[in-house]
Write a structure and sequence with these properties.
A seven-stranded mixed β-sheet has the order 3-2-1-4-6-5-7, sandwiched between helices. Helix 1 packs parallel to helix 2. The chain has ten helices and seven strands. The chain is globular and about 50 Å long. It is of the alpha/beta class.
């Protein structure tokens, strides 16, 4: 039986914005799991955190220490200094990743991967997503949730609203010839790009929420000829998130 050989991968740096009012928040427990997954898989993770407590940042750092006896730290936690919300933290994380790249690797050999901290299962998918980018010569990689896992593991309101949103954005993309990957999972959140395109994200000042991750991708493709690719994954969303959000007007509005 033929086997698929994983190509030589570039350097990978994952970034995420975090904020926890206290350590009792279910999202904090999930964020810790994301840090543990980064350490388990040997992936560098940079968090830009706006939590009020240094103790929270220390716990995130501790969760990112390898348990193989090496005590190597894979998680860097920076206190947010950029004014603003998620978008500001994302931009600060992009700058921090670029500075790390300058110290350890050539620009062309690094892929920056953005994800929300509440998606620990994403960590196990990044290497395959990056491998797909390498194999296809893509500059930007957008993971796509398999429909089965998406429908089963997300709140039903979010599944239907994001399915509609993705179809709408696909129609806009096709209308302007966005490229062969005009159909992508626009609203999942995670996205990977070659570091040379990092200025598209770092310099996008208008976005403070989802637009801070999405609009720069469109800018990179439309004005800088970045090639976008989509890669389907069987993403396992935390059950605790669905339990908290499904049927809640607060989260349905999101």
């Amino acid at each position: 039986m033929a086997t698929t050989t994983m190509p030589t991968l570039p350097n990978i740096i994952v970034i995420a914005p975090t904020f926890y009012a206290n350590s009792n928040n279910i999202r904090f427990a999930i964020g810790l799991e994301t840090c543990r997954e980064a350490a388990r898989l040997g992936i560098d993770l940079i968090l830009v955190d706006a939590s009020p407590s240094e103790e929270i940042r220390d716990k995130l750092r501790a969760a990112g220490i390898a348990k193989d006896g090496s005590n190597k730290s894979y998680v860097e936690v920076l206190k947010q200094t950029y004014e603003g919300k998620k978008g500001a933290a994302l931009r600060e994380a992009v700058v921090a990743a670029s500075q790390k790249v300058a110290a350890v690797a050539a620009e062309s050999d690094t892929i920056v991967c953005f994800q929300e901290p509440e998606k620990p299962d994403m960590m196990r998918h990044w290497k395959k997503i990056v491998a797909h980018m390498v194999q296809t010569g893509a500059d930007i990689g957008v993971p796509r949730r398999s429909d089965a896992s998406f429908q089963a593991l997300y709140p039903k309101e979010q599944y239907h609203s994001e399915m509609y949103g993705n179809l709408y954005l696909d129609s806009l993309a096709k209308a302007v010839d966005f490229g062969p990957s005009s159909s992508v999972d626009w609203l999942m959140g995670p996205i990977a790009w070659r570091n040379k395109y990092s200025p598209c994200w770092a310099e996008y000042k208008d976005g403070d929420l989802w637009d801070a991750q999405l609009c720069p991708m469109v800018h990179a493709q439309r004005w800088h000829n970045a090639k976008v690719t989509s890669y389907e994954i069987t993403y396992q969303h935390p059950a605790a998130m669905k339990e908290e959000e499904e049927g809640s007007p607060k989260w349905t509005e999101k």
